[in-house]
Amino acid sequence: MIGASGFAGRSSANYDDSYPAMADADNLAKSETQGLRLYTGFSAFGLDQELSYSHFNIERANYEAWSDIFYTGTRDRLAWVASTAIGAAGDISFGIDHSREDYTQSGSYGDSEGKTTSPGLCRTALCADPDVGYQRLAAAR
Predict the structure, then answer these.
(1) Which residues contact 98 (CB under 8 A, 6 or more apart)?
(2) 18 CB contacts (<8 Å, ≥6 apart)?
(3) Which residues are CB-neighbours of 131 under 8 A, at least 6 positions away?
(4) In this predicted structure, what is the pLDDT of residue 85?
(5) Where are the beta strands (DSSP E) in the chain?
(6) What distance in Å separates the CA atoms of residue 38 and residue 138, rounded to the nearest whole number?
(7) Which of 41, 94, 117, 137 is the most exposed place for a label (fewest CB within 10 A)?
(8) Mean pLDDT per 10-residue interval, the chain, length 141 residues
């Protein structure tokens, strides 16, 4: 199996500050996001596996009473997950991923740039109990 999915989103929200003197401030937050995910699924070594790559473009702007903040970034993620049935008892899944985000932020308080790298390891076990269905027994990331 080979697949791709994409999305685009745009949102805006009005909000008030938590600071009492500015509680009635008419602040505006806007966000635009576009992304693409490519994946392939296959079976090997007795495991159902999926390898995926995703890329997101993120733009956010906060227009506040005393300052404006603008954020632009990209996020890339490479992930692998495998799962197998453990008999009638349920399923077990495990995997690894690596994410990287590059961003710039500017506004009234100055400008900044950054890079964040996040490696990950996950495992999940699901138990099949006919009385209650599938339940998550253990998960960690």
Answers:
(1) 77, 78, 79, 117, 118, 119, 120
(2) none
(3) none
(4) 85
(5) 2-15, 27-44, 47-63, 68-85, 90-107, 112-129, 133-140
(6) 28
(7) 117
(8) 95 77 74 96 94 95 82 94 83 91 86 88 70 44 36
**Assigned token pair, 61:** 């702007």
CA atoms within 13 A of residue 101's CA, in its CB half-sphere: 15
* CA–CA dist 83, 100 (Å, integer): 25
For the chain, the distance separating the N- and C-terminal CA atoms, rounded to the nearest angstrom, is 26
Angstrom CA distances, 34 to 4, 93, 103, stand at 14, 29, 15
Q: What is the model's pLDDT at position 139?
A: 41
Position 24 scores a pLDDT of 66
| pLDDT on residue 79 | 94
Map 102-126 to HEC letters.
EEEEEECCCCEEEEEEEEEEEEEEE
